[in-house]
Amino acid sequence: MAFGFPASFSQLTPLNNLPSSAFILTTISICKKLNWTLIGVAENEIFAVSKNKKHTWNETISITIEEEGTALITSSSNGNQFYDCGRNKKNTESFLELYFEELNDASNLNLDSDAFPEHIKTEQRNLSSEKETEQNITSFYSFFSIFIPTKDYLITPILIYLNILYFLVMLYLGVHFFSPEVQEIIDWGGNHGPLTTENQWWRLLSACFVPFNFLHLVVSCFALAYVGLLLESYLKKWIFLVTYLLCGIIGNLSSLYWDKDVVSAGASGAIFGMYGILLIALISKTLKKKINILSYFQLYF
């Protein structure tokens, strides 16, 4: 499972004395068998994207011929994922599995220096329309992906929908679009010390879904979407949900501690808490790398 910005996985493989031209042609054939869309073809490298699926993001795969008779296969997640649930490694393994199956057939290819460039040009002409279509699909998908629930990104869109729905109901029942009255925020479940501490503890949770105004809602939704894209697949769905709600409750408790007479509302406390979790995850990864490096030196020195 890859972890990073964006998530990616790379692996070197030997060409096994296979001519580079035969390797590139074999790579093109394998990409088509895997239903990957070719977006770049050259004499020493291939770029493709995995098929867009309804419930997952896709990945960009590059296969580049390196020095000393090796090729580097790299699969990188598209979008803002930093945890790929093993998809990048699976892409690499799928490619290598077919590559070794076809290695004997590819070894029989015998292309002269003139025929190979012409074959590459033909492939480049064939992929131009596919590339344009794929880019349009990817651009559309990337823009709207923060609102589309997927297998690895389910809770975040639902939370966004709940925030939007709550605000729409508030508007429908007369709350002002840009500047609601403070009393209206309280009436709709805002966190207010004198009420919350008088057995209305449910306000610690309800306040997480009460935006102060339209701009507050928009900023909160985009901030939530971004941290959700990064964290939800890493923490898993239900852990992400519980952590989000706990962060919101703790944030509202903190507001009571600092000034119980102030009215607090919105998803900011929960969102800031999730960014704190993200920071911990990033620091932990850095520390893990340092530990691995130290272990390496201890082993060999």
TrEMBL record:
<dbReference type="InterPro" id="IPR022764">
    <property type="entry name" value="Peptidase_S54_rhomboid_dom"/>
</dbReference>
<keyword id="KW-1133">Transmembrane helix</keyword>
<feature type="transmembrane region" description="Helical">
    <location>
        <begin position="153"/>
        <end position="173"/>
    </location>
</feature>
<comment type="similarity">
    <text>Belongs to the peptidase S54 family.</text>
</comment>
<keyword id="KW-0378">Hydrolase</keyword>
<keyword id="KW-0812">Transmembrane</keyword>
<dbReference type="Pfam" id="PF01694">
    <property type="entry name" value="Rhomboid"/>
</dbReference>
<keyword id="KW-0472">Membrane</keyword>
<dbReference type="GO" id="GO:0004252">
    <property type="term" value="F:serine-type endopeptidase activity"/>
</dbReference>
<keyword id="KW-0645">Protease</keyword>
<feature type="transmembrane region" description="Helical">
    <location>
        <begin position="204"/>
        <end position="231"/>
    </location>
</feature>
<feature type="transmembrane region" description="Helical">
    <location>
        <begin position="264"/>
        <end position="283"/>
    </location>
</feature>
<dbReference type="InterPro" id="IPR035952">
    <property type="entry name" value="Rhomboid-like_sf"/>
</dbReference>
<dbReference type="GO" id="GO:0006508">
    <property type="term" value="P:proteolysis"/>
</dbReference>
<protein>
    <submittedName>
        <fullName>Rhomboid family intramembrane serine protease</fullName>
    </submittedName>
</protein>
<feature type="transmembrane region" description="Helical">
    <location>
        <begin position="238"/>
        <end position="258"/>
    </location>
</feature>
<dbReference type="GO" id="GO:0016020">
    <property type="term" value="C:membrane"/>
</dbReference>
<feature type="domain" description="Peptidase S54 rhomboid">
    <location>
        <begin position="199"/>
        <end position="286"/>
    </location>
</feature>
<dbReference type="InterPro" id="IPR050925">
    <property type="entry name" value="Rhomboid_protease_S54"/>
</dbReference>
